């Protein structure tokens, strides 16, 4: 068996995006020796791509804003399926997390009187997004990275070793969370460059690996988003919550094909951009759903007045939550009123002077100029929906971020479920990373501190051998499958072909609008792909071998895709990011139902090949009733639209 490097830490954080870094900083500040592992280069996580801003009710742009308004907006956006305690903590703590970032060196855009500037975004009642042009995620990561380095310098002064208490393992992929009995005892992974295996032993592991978008063909997500953390948790025995809720952002680029899916930030609409169809009509006025009718303008004049006088006018319907806008664009294109390349037009050129566009939306200006040869200061963009974010994720305790059922496992950021209910509001992810990243780091450190040297769970040789054998399988997949007498053994499969087929399947059959027969077809295709993926073979050796990396990632994408498809088939209503053509209405009876996915084989094995049963078992559970003082923040007439009779009484 391969030689495996082993090290001991108190806390291991898997992922160095906003959530992972915030968790690591907190754990280290609370005295835990903390290791951070990330697939890409340090400082190059998906968070860097975040454009619009961080939602926090600081009240800088409108003093009417406070945590209660933010809480209400978040619950409305999630159609009341949010884990309400998370939404409460998030709204209360987000401003502190933004101010803290500033004390660590973040340079936010300012208001005229010198406070942190806040911009409008869909679903937020007030301008609420603290931002740095349209490069907020970059500044967030830069600041957290700088804080990590500052802590390492502090450690050097005390111990003579920069990495004695906080170390980053970059370009390393974790493939298994290891356990002794029910307890987490570490992680197994490989260095992407050398292919060498390693084990980091620790009684507490924080998963902060981000999303799942690479299972879909058209996506705004980066290469890292292969659902690894979701799969790691499932394999470790932790359930995933409400995986049917995948957000399709309304505005991705649609042309040229090589850039299809790349995000066009919501700030474009927040700053005054309007959506028009091929007839030049501002069509969003036709798509305001009943639950939002009293909050959105009914005429273009009122919508336009809102930008200067938000207290006496209602918001433009372009700023409805993302699920509503994405469905509207989809409908316009389907009705034949789309733009030449299958999207609609998003125009800022007639709404703002060129110089303001270049200043407020510099990345968008360059993105369109360089990738599509479109000058957004002079002509409209063509945009359409793109898979953007997963609301579903690891089921966690709201206060501590502890993953359900696996002591020592924690999760934060996009990989964790619950916070955003059925649909996330723009800007609420960056704040989520900071609020729950910090909480995960704190409780992971406390968990580790409670396990002194004598009581720590231990990694055994057998666990390491099993994880190494699984990781090496793509080098001998075909022979192994044949020797095991697996059904359908055939020639080796190309991981890239399998990936493409998976992406096409999820895009076409479990995409923005879902239908029962198509989802059943998707499950059959996923079962076929699962069998073929066991023969995903690679050539060559372990030194930087992207085919091998993809073959390993396929396990995760297939698991997660099955969760999405099964949960989407089960939920016979439309809510937030989950739209069923055959069950088009939101159903109050589903408001308090969570769907949990777990492995059919509780030992963490992946042998199940039965296309009907698959690898994932679904269970329903009732959501915890919303605390009365939080319900009292809403008008009864509004609650009636969402809550079931018994909840209202
Ligand atoms: P990430 O930042 O993705 O970090 C994940 C980390 O996990 C990475 O370091 C990765 O290398 C590592 N990793 C993954 N798998 C493994 C593994 N197996 N082993 C080891 N490491 C692993 N949200 C907002 O609130 N405001 C915005 O303005 C905004 N704009 C966006 C713009 C774009 C284009 C996109 C795509 C998203 C945007 N979002 C925005 C969403 C937001 O950026 C993400 O939800 C958020 O950054 C996720 O952060 P994270 O810390 O959970 O994960």
From TrEMBL:
Q: Which Gene3D superfamilies match?
A: FAD/NAD(P)-binding domain, Fumarate reductase/succinate dehydrogenase flavoprotein-like, C-terminal domain, Succinate dehydrogenase/fumarate reductase flavoprotein, catalytic domain
Q: Which organism is it from?
A: Streptomyces plicatus
Q: Does the keyword Glycosyltransferase apply?
A: no
Q: Which InterPro entries match?
A: FAD-dep_OxRdtase_2_FAD-bd, FAD/NAD-bd_sf, Fum_R/Succ_DH_flav-like_C_sf, Fum_Rdtase/Succ_DH_flav-like_C, SdhA/FrdA/AprA, Succ_DH/fumarate_Rdtase_cat_sf
Q: Where is the Fumarate reductase/succinate dehydrogenase flavoprotein-like C-terminal domain?
A: 499-596
Q: What are the FAD-dependent oxidoreductase 2 FAD-binding domain coordinates in residue numbering? A: 10-430
Which UniProt keywords are present, listed alphabetically? Flavoprotein, Oxidoreductase
Q: What is this protein called?
A: Fumarate reductase/succinate dehydrogenase flavoprotein subunit
């Amino acid at each position: 068996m391969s030689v495996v490097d082993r090290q001991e830490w108190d806390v291991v954080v898997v992922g160095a995006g906003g959530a992972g870094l915030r968790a690591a900083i907190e754990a280290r500040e609370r005295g835990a020796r903390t290791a951070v592992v990330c697939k890409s280069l340090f400082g190059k996580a998906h968070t860097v791509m975040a454009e619009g801003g961080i939602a926090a009710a600081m009240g800088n742009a409108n003093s009417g804003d406070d945590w209660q308004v933010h809480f209400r907006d978040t619950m409305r956006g999630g159609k009341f399926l949010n884990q309400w305690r998370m939404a409460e903590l998030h709204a209360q703590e987000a401003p502190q997390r933004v101010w803290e970032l500033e004390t660590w060196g973040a340079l936010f855009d300012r208001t005229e009187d010198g406070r942190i500037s806040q911009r409008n975004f869909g679903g937020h009642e007030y301008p609420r997004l603290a931002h740095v042009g349209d490069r907020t995620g970059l500044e967030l990561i830069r600041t957290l990275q700088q804080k990590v380095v500052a802590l390492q310098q502090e450690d050097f002064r005390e111990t003579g070793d920069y990495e004695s208490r906080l170390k980053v393992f970059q370009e390393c992929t974790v493939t298994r969370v290891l356990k002794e009995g029910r307890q987490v005892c570490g992680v197994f992974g490989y260095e992407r460059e050398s292919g060498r295996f390693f084990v980091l032993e620790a009684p507490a592991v924080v998963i902060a690996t981000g999303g799942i978008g690479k299972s879909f063909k058209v996506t705004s997500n980066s290469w890292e988003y292969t659902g690894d953390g979701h799969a790691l948790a499932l394999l470790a025995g932790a359930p995933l919550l409400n995986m049917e809720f995948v957000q399709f952002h309304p505005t991705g680029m649609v042309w040229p094909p090589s850039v299809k899916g790349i995000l066009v930030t919501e700030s474009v609409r927040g700053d005054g951009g309007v959506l028009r169809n091929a007839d030049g009509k501002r069509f969003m006025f036709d798509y305001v759903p009943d639950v939002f009718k009293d909050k959105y303008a009914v005429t273009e004049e009122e919508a336009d007045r809102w930008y200067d006088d938000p207290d006496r006018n209602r918001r433009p319907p372009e700023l409805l939550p993302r699920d509503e806008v994405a469905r509207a664009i989809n409908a316009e294109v389907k009705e034949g009123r789309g733009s030449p390349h299958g999207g609609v037009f998003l125009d800022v050129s007639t709404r703002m002077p060129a110089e303001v566009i270049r200043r407020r939306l510099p990345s968008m200006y360059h993105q369109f100029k360089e990738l599509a040869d479109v000058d957004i200061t002079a002509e409209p963009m063509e945009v359409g929906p793109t898979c953007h974010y997963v609301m579903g994720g690891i089921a966690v305790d709201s206060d501590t971020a502890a993953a359900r059922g696996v002591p020592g496992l924690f999760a934060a950021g996009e990989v964790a479920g619950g916070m955003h209910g059925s649909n996330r509001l723009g800007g609420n992810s960056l704040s989520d990373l900071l609020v729950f990243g910090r909480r995960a780091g704190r409780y992971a450190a406390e968990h580790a501190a409670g396990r002194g040297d004598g009581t720590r769970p231990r990694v055994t040789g057998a666990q390491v051998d099993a994880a190494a054998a699984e990781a090496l399988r793509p080098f001998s997949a075909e022979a192994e499958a044949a020797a095991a007498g697996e059904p359908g053994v055939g020639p080796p499969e190309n991981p890239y072909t399998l990936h493409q087929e998976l992406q096409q399947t999820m895009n076409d059959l479990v995409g923005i609008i879902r239908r029962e027969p198509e989802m059943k077809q998707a499950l059959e295709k996923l079962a076929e792909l699962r069998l073929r993926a066991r023969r995903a073979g690679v050539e060559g050796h372990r030194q930087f071998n992207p085919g091998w990396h993809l073959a390993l990632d396929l396990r995760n994408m297939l698991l997660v895709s099955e969760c999405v498809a099964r949960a989407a088939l089960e939920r016979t209503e439309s809510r937030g990011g989950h739209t069923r053509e055959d069950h088009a209405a939101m159903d109050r009876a589903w408001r308090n139902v969570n769907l949990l996915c777990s492995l059919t084989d509780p030992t963490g094995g992946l042998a199940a090949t039965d296309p009907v049963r698959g690898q994932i078992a679904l269970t329903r559970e009732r959501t915890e009733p919303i605390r009365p003082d939080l319900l009292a923040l809403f008008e009864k007439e509004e609650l009636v639209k969402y809550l079931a009779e018994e909840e209202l009484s």
